[in-house]
Amino acid sequence: MPLHNLRQRVRSTPLVATTVAIPSPTVVEALSASPFDALLIDAEHSALSIEGLEGMLRAADIAPMPTLVRVPEVGWYIPRVLDLGAAGVVVPRVETGEQALDAVNRTRYAPEGKRGAGPARGQAYGAQLAHYVASANESILLAVQIETAAGLEAADEILSVPGIDAVVIGPFDLATSLGTTVGSADHRAAVDRIFAAARRHTVATGAFAFSIGDAADYLELGATLLFVGMDITSVIAGAAQTWSEVAPLVESRRAAVAGKTIR
Question: Which active-site residues does the annotation give?
Answer without folding.
Answer: 45
